[in-house]
Every structure is written in structure tokens, then in C-alpha cells.
Amino acid sequence: MLPERxxxxxxxxxxxxxxxxxxNILFYIFLAYRSNNFLQIDDSLMMKxxxxxxxxxxxxxxxxxxxxxxxxxxxxxxxLLIFGARAEExxxxxxxxxxxxxCGAFASLISVLVHPLGTVxxxxxxxxxxxxxxxxxxxxxxxxxxxxxxxIYGFVFFALAAATGFLxxxxxxxxxxxxxxxxxxDWYPExxxxxxxxxxxxx
Length: 203
Hints:
The chain is mainly α. The protein has one domain (4-202): Rhomboid-like (Rhomboid-like fold). Helices cover 67% and strands 0% of the residues. The protein has 10 helices and no strands. It has helices at residues 4-8, 15-35, 43-49, 59-62, 70-91, 93-114, 125-138, 147-160, 166-184, 196-202.
């Protein structure tokens, strides 16, 4: 079972999730206003606030809140609401915020370093996949085969979204699994007969 403190701390469990969604939406409105186009953000602004190999350090943060167009923002916010609310219920707001920032920054950075020079990385999807990974691994007691099933579910989600942001999604998902497992490994002592790494090798 999930620890009782996580299940009963219901008050304000959506505050950080709602705050992250609000920041993403407000930042998109700001960029759309600067672009004179509500449907698509100007390339020069994406170069300024997205992340690319020769960019600035602040872009490690701003790229997680910048989106290329309205559809990019829309589907990311739907999934952030779904998985963010569950993560906030399980882990609390502070850990949710840390998951978003850490997974999002690492996912974007690795993606930019691997892709050709000048490729711009932007969007919340790397962070969202990190949150998803942490949620799945925390809920492993409700799945058949525990950790193994959590990993399979995670990679099913990854495969469904692999057409866009392939590497960022993968890095975010794996990092979220690792962070989530490190936090929850003492929550389910009965399922630790097989190690996390053994389950990883078998997937």
C-alpha cells in the first residue's frame, strides 16, 4: 500500500499541478502576444526561450514552459493535469515540482546534446514523462508483477508518443522511474525480493 500520509493529505493536492499548468499557459500567452500569432510561436522567440546547444543557461528552465504552438501546449497540459495531480497526491507538491524541473532539464539537455547543432528543444513533455515514470513506479503494488508491469506500462506510453521528442521522452521517463523508485523503495518491502535492476533486465 501507499503510505497513509500520502493518501490522506488531500488538502491542496492540486496546487502545484495547477500552478505548473498556469505558468505554462501564461508563458504561452506572453510568447503568442510577442509573436502576434496565438496559434504558433515565432521562431526567434523559440530560439530565445527554447534550449539549443549554444544557448544560455536560463534556457534550461524556460524551455520547459515554452511550446511551439497551441496544440503542443494543449496536449501537454492535459497530460500534466492527469499525471501531475496523481504525483502530487502520492509524493506531495515539493517533490512534484522537483520532478518537473529535474526531469525536464535533463531530458531537454540530453536531447539537445545528441541532436544536430541548432536543434531547439522546448515543451513540458520530458518533465511530464518523468512525472509519469515516478507515478507508475509508486503504484507498482496495484499492478500484476509489480515493478516489471510498471516498466512495461511506462514504455507503452513512451511508444505511443515516440513520434515526437523521442529522446527527451525516454530520458524523462527513465529518470522519473529512478527518482520514484529511490523514494518509494521502502514503501513495499514485500516486493523487493527481486531487485529493480533485475526487473529492468527482463523487460
